[in-house]
Amino acid sequence: MMLTQQQIAAIHRANLDNLFRMTSGIVEGVDKLAALNIQVGRSGLADLRNVTLQAIAVRESQEWFALHGSLIASATEKMQAWSQQVFDVVAATQAELGRYARAGWDAQVSQARTLAGDVAKDAPSGNGAATAAVDQAINATSALVETFQKSGEQSIAFTRSNFEAAAALASNATKRATGQHDRTAKR
């Protein structure tokens, strides 16, 4: 069975629509990252101004050590928050792309099944084994794609939990270090 020009055009349109949806999702993710980085840059400039003014006002070494400790803690917290937001944007973009890819895959599988069914109808009798083999190949490939998708989702969940654990450890280490630094400065 041959595909008609309308069927071929419809397939191309569906593929282009999927491509543009995916591209739009990527651009949206990049836009979110750019906005986040601009926000961090502005905040960093404001923090720099405040820190400079505080440093100018320091009169004694204990004040300097206290300022230093608070700056380290603040910078660590801000870096962790920024990293978490970047991770969230990247994970959301990846999930959206995964949905688009899955929708495209499902459409391709549907088209392949339809084509295989049409070929089987027009084929001479006795082609049941070939039709079953094509069906089995489509099912196996679909199962493989599903496995890859689940592995990707598990990988993101694993990475998120490791990121959160590392952030908690870094935060605790910073608090301990600034606490020790403060105690040393008071002596």
Automatic annotation (TrEMBL):
Domain of life: Bacteria
Pfam families: Phasin_2
Location of the Phasin domain: 6-102
InterPro entries: Phasin, Phasin_subfam-1
Annotated protein name in UniProt: Phasin family protein
Organism: Paraburkholderia tagetis
